Amino acid sequence: MNAKPPRPDLPEILVRWFERRGWILRDYQRRVLDLATRKESALVIAPTGAGKTLAGFLPALCDLARGEAAPLFALYVSPLKALAVDVRRNLEIPVAEIGLDARIEARTGDTPASRRARQQKNPPHILLTTPEQLALMLSRPDSAKVFANLRYLVLDEVHALAPSKRGDLLALNLAQLARIAPDVQRFGLSATVKDPEALARWLASGGAPTPHIVKAEDAPPPRFEILESESRTPWSGHSGRYAVGDIYQRLRRATLSIVFVNTRLQAELMFQLLWDINEDNLRIALHHGSLDRAHRRRVEAAMAEGAVDAVVATSTLDLGLDWGDVDLVIQVGAPKSASRLTQRVGRSNHRLDEPSQALLAPANRFEWLECVAAVEAVEAGAQDNEPAREGALDVLAQHVVSRLGAEPMTAAALYDEIVAAAPYRGLTRETFGRVLAFARNGGYALKAYDRFEKIRADANGVLRVANAKMLAAHRMNIGTIVDNPMARVVQAIGAGRALKKAGKELGTIDSLVAAGMAPGDTFYFAGEVWEVRELREETLFVSRARANASTIIPSYMGGRLPVSESLAARVAELISGARHDIPFPPQVAEWLAAQADVSMAPRPGRLLVEVFPRAKRHYLALYPFAGRLAHQTLGVLLTRRLNRAGLAPIGFAANDYAVLVWQLRPFPETEDFSKLLSPDMLGDDLEEWLDESSIMKRAFRNCAQVAGLVERRVFGEAKSGRALTISSDLIYDVLRRYEPDHILLQAARLEASREMLDLDRLAGKLVMFADNIDLVRRARPTPLAVPLLLEIGREKAPGNARDLALEELGDEFLGT
Amino acid sequence: MNKPLNVKPLLVARKISFHGHRIELRPSGALCFPDLSALVVADLHLGKALHFSAAGMFLPPYESDATLQKLDAEARATGADKIVLLGDAFHSARLTAEPDFLPRMVEILARRAAPVFVLGNHDRPLTQALQKLSCALLEEWRVENIRLRHEPDGLSGPQIFGHLHPCVRVATRAGKQRRACFVVGAEKIVMPAFGALAGGLCVTSPALAPFARGADLHLI
Known about the structure:
Chain A: Belongs to the Lhr helicase family. Lhr-Core subfamily. The structure holds two protein chains of two kinds. Chain A is α/β, with parallel strands linked by helices.
């Protein structure tokens, strides 16, 4: 591409530093450097711990070593703020040791406003930041000046970012950057993905040349072991409590272990259980997303220094951080996807030439099957499917305002820039016009708000944000992460009026969880026991306490995990008994035998349906093993049918293997189940039914916040007394009734559809089952159904069940 | 905190007697004095969406019409010839920025029955604008010894008021539900908000707890 001869080698001082450290450039790192010298871009695909980050920064380090660096000549973007901070620390080391003159700074949501302002005015040489902070910087009128010197853009964990709303926003920002600094070289860093070409196209957003794909040498396959405990493995539950003794023995033998669990709740519990039996006084730490940042930092530092023996962690530790010498990774509970498992196992043995090792501890007998399936998937090199992504319209609505805040431009120029971003390639002019109209004044058919336009056009058709106040309010809402409202947990002394903060802030918990606690309740948090003194506004004041019989572990809403479709078929095969090459451990065999005894095992090509009552409700469990998306759609359709049949469905939960529906009324003996599943149900007005589903309402809530229709609840801004926030559900109801084709409903339908399988594909799967149903009625949950009863991610069924259940209350006296 | 509450579902209209008067509690959140042909509603918050749009939050401009349609249906169903708006009929003073808005709302309100405006904290700043439209404005409306106000005034004696937007969480077979409610005590009745975008406040919160104690909660 470039006629100039490449400068293939590292500057001398870098070579000497490498030698002192005993480092040798790997082949793939050298290839990245060669591409950089030829002014080209690269998508670097390498497993965790293979030195990807170094590869991405090599070109920038070379420039620094040659004294060719200007302020903000290199920008690094990571999905995790912890990662940005950590990479900054790791960069400081070579820069200081080599004696390079460079300012390297991180910028995250936690960076003080004064420093952020300074960074905008007087940027460092290298800035490490998050997509949200980049979007914020790019929304300012001086952004063209700030990024004028930019030469290198390093994007970390792009495989995690690209298929998400955050990735949509980042792609739009890449397109904007391409205009400001067209010659920037991009280095995307990614774990192994199914379709690297698609990721490379995403990385080229903004019309940049498509980057070369550079793959690291293959690492030896990881080595797995699935725990077979002597203790009784439960049929259900996710705690892994039974295995804690076995896990502890492994921790004793290892130098530094990470015990990965799937949710914060499990992390708190596992941490407690391990300390309860910690006879050797192992240094065991806890790390999860609800804990205070300072606490997490201390744990991370202790890992790097070897000052800790084991860490119980959730996905906050998942992505690329480099954690010193971890020699054992334990996964408690089934990993929900092959990719996640690969990533977690990559935590151990950060050397490419040695296999990583991991122990999988299924939390229940069903999870044993999932563990086997996940391991087989990883060994077969299977990667999770990342469907091609159409950019979210709420993200676009947000970006339009940010973009015009940075620079007034015509609608045509704006459109051209947007369709250069990979996720928006297919955006029509018409849809763009509706998004723009939304950003302008709501875009309603009823022209009510022309007086209050957020975006104004001048005589030449140049669009700009109407006033500084609106732009400032908009900036408060930049970003696409919509969290549940959280309450702070703060240590306190005194009571009533004299209650005051004493000591540190411990972290945050879901406000709904906090609201459910009363003074005097005790609970586990951050690995200790606390007593609630008072909940005041959004702060839970607590003091140290002793555990008693009613001490609870608060359950966190953050436990919902993405699951992988590909594992379902493997599990179905295992469970049907078709696989004779895998010997089941006795406990799993016993559980499956119990299922066969009490009910029956699901058979290939047939659909098992179980009907049973439990806790005053009536359940239907279906086991199609068709993947979560198909089951979500099936849940929506089934509850509609059941509602029409007068059975008052309350809700449903879908996972990879099954869908569970519960209702107020029993499923009649005479009802023909196959009718409920008959494919002609697909002719039903699904659109309408979807619009009533909780999946759609949730999607609308997210879209309304991201698009700026309602303001995000900012921490510490909770109003006392009357809640002044407007419920997005109420807005949804009004909008659906009066303007069902509004662009924001379209945005929400797009988002909801990502959680569902389209009807044609579902029909294909259902036709197969229609005449092949095994219906089993039992008086209590069957062994196979027990794990389902604890499934998270429940959806409400529309219909009259809520009114009927309310009616039942009659004159009963009830607590709130 | 966990004291039991007397919860009654209100899925169809219920007649109660309050200080010698027949009152009908309606699932819409309206209350009716059948003997006076009067319909009482609180906290319509008309123009809430318009209010927010001035700050760049363009909520659907249909919520006022939705509320008025619901009110019209209630007026028709009860045959009321008088509608008492128990305060906060309008959301804010900013609404005068859109000159057509108030006249249009008042005109729609008057189509079926004569509106009587009891002023609330949100619409008191609109006093002049409403007077210009010849609206009947009151601080309170009386039915013999019952005083109907926007907010309670702390005095004893029977009162009916809104302002607090009561709602309650109850556990049912279909899971926990949060429902708006009438709070009916021996002396005081707190009405739920009638407006489509009005939101609610839990009866256990300090502002509502004194009225909810020992009262019947009629859930709508």
